[in-house]
Structure formats: structure tokens, C-alpha cells
Amino acid sequence: MTVTEQDYAWLNLLTGALFAAYAAFALFRPRTLAAAEKAFPRHRTLGLILTAIALVWSAIFVNDMNLGGFSKYKNLLYIITPVTYYLIVQYLDDLLAARALGGLLMLYPVLLVDAARWITTPDRFVLVITAYAFVCIGIWLTLSPFKFRIWSESVAARPPLRLATGLLTAALAAAMLAIGLTHG
Prior knowledge:
By secondary structure, this protein is mainly α. It has helices at 5-28, 30-39, 44-64, 77-91, 96-116, 124-143, 146-157, 159-183. The protein starts with a helix and ends with a helix.
């Protein structure tokens, strides 16, 4: 897959818009955000949808990879992916939405780092550092999905921490939106 400077701009704009939406809720509708974050980890429908997206995305990545001698088994992905989905939904259904979000946070940075690879300006490090932060958070959520609620409740219970989180997220959103607009 060839990534252009236009893709870099769009990914900055998309990531910045996601951060801006979170920041807007954190700063202006904190109770709504707290209620959504409290309900999210056990939301079954969102868990099923996010899990399906993460598994299909993983299968696409594996299908595009050079696996050497294992490449001849790529056609098994069409069987393995739905079976894996069934097994995950059947046996890992508790806190499925938080786990699936963790999986997506480990997949999305592949696009971010790929887009930043050939950009020579120093602003690319904003996207790369964000990508690595996403991976760390994704690993954390996948291994300990129950900590999503603990973390979000502790932030919601402390107004100064909630404000700091909202302001930091808003600053990162502004930076990413500005980078996306200058490269677009």
C-alpha cells in the first residue's frame, strides 16, 4: 500500500477530529461522558461490532503480509476469522467492548506510522508518538479491560483531573488538525 502526503493529512485530520470530539465531551458534557465511559466496557452490541471490525482488519493485515513459507495457508483466514470471532464472543464476552477497543487501538497505529514514514517534517513525530501511545493503551485495555472503568471513574470523580484531560486532549486535537490542514 502506497501512502501519500495526502493520506498523512487525512489521518491527522481524522485523529484530530476524534480527539476534538472527546475533548468537547470532557470539557462541556462531563457527566454524559462519564455515563458513556461507565456503560461502554459491558455494552454488548458495541463489543460485537468492534470485535468484528478488529478481526476483519487483522485478517486484512495478515493477508497483505509476506509470511514466507506460511503464505500458502492464507486461504485459511476465511475459516479462521469467523471461528475466532465465535470463540471470542462465546468465551471472552465479559468486557468485550473494552477488549475490542484495545485491539483497534493496536491496529489503527499501523496506518498512522505508515503515513508518517516518508514525511520529512518534524511534525510527523506528533503522529508517531500518538501511534505509540495508542499501542500502549491498546495493550493495556486488551490485557486488563476492567481498568478502563477504574481509570474513567477516577478521572470523572476529580474535576481538576477531568479538566486537565480535556485540555490536553483539546491541545493534541488542535495540533493534529493544524498539521492535517497544513499538509492537505
